[in-house]
Design a protein that fits this description.
This protein has helices at 10-18, 29-34, 40-50, 64-75, 89-100, 113-122, 131-136, 141-153, 170-179, 188-194, 198-212; strands at 2-6, 22-26, 55-58, 81-86, 105-110, 126-129, 161-164, 183-186. The protein has one domain: TIM Barrel (Alpha-Beta Barrel). Strands 1-2-3-4-5-6-7-8 form an eight-stranded parallel β-barrel, surrounded by eight helices. Helix 4 (64-75) crosses helix 5. The protein is built from eleven helices and eight strands. The chain starts with a strand and ends with a helix. The protein has 215 residues and is of the alpha/beta class. The protein binds SN-glycerol-3-phosphate. The site of SN-glycerol-3-phosphate (G3P) has 9 residues, from helix 7. SN-glycerol-3-phosphate (G3P) binds next to helix 7.
Length: 215
């Protein structure tokens, strides 16, 4: 399973890219807005220079025509830009039209496996089930990943990848991989947490103490 960073913060992207683990980046309007005052095009273009992999940029329009217009504009910024559209019937129309033009899409805000199946049928490059937000409703978000993986595996014609999103903690990363996700997009904080373990710290302390005390 590949790891993406779910952020528009350039410092976080630079840092995680230096670890050698990043295969792509996802953004959404909330994450762009969090980086107060930044220009959308400039930010996406800068991210594309930091990470050599798919960079998701989300449309704002609610109708297919608008999504298509925005998608064509964003796709011209860099070949790695992926157009993010919501899991709606208008989103499906936009995915279908963009796919015909060879433009890759990320169908986001996916909350059930039927949405994921329809996104795949329309020609989505990736689908983004929101694991954490499903958990928030009292339903098992990882079960959604499992269902989509099973459905996609049944049909060799489906090449849509499963991008596990709304990741809240390191266990979501592990469970997403075990459930069959192709990619997990993670907040920077969760990637940091995933690499921390008290026994790792204690082991380092012990090794250094023993090294210093050697005869
Ligand atoms: O990028 C979409 C998704 O990962 C958002 O996560 O934490 O806002 O539910 P969250």
């Amino acid at each position: 399973m590949q790891l993406y960073l779910d952020t528009a913060n350039l410092n976080e992207i630079r840092e995680a890219a230096s670890w050698g683990i990043l295969s792509g980046v996802t953004t959404n309007p909330t994450l762009i807005a969090r980086e107060q005052g930044v220009d959308f095009k400039a930010t996406i273009s800068e991210i594309a220079t930091l990470v050599d992999g798919p960079i998701s940029a989300e449309t704002i329009a609610l109708d297919a025509e608008g999504m298509l217009r925005e998608g064509l504009e964003y796709a011209a910024w860099h070949p790695n830009v992926i157009i993010k559209v919501p899991s709606t019937t208008e989103g499906l129309k936009a995915v279908y039209q963009l796919a015909k033009k060879g433009i890759r899409t990320n169908v986001t805000l996916c909350f059930n496996a039927a949405q994921a199946l329809m996104a795949a049928r329309a020609g989505a490059f990736v689908v983004s089930p929101f694991v954490g937000r499903v958990d928030d409703t009292g339903v098992d978000g990882i079960q959604l990943i499992r269902e989509i993986a099973t459905i996609y595996k049944q049909d060799a014609a489906i090449s849509t990848k499963i991008l596990s999103a709304s990741i809240r903690h390191p266990r979501h990363i592990v469970d997403s991989a075990l459930a069959g996700a192709d990619i997990a997009t993670c907040p920077f904080k969760v990637l940091q947490q995933a690499m921390r373990h008290p026994l790792t710290d204690r082991g380092i302390e012990q090794f250094i103490a023993d090294w210093k005390a050697r005869a």
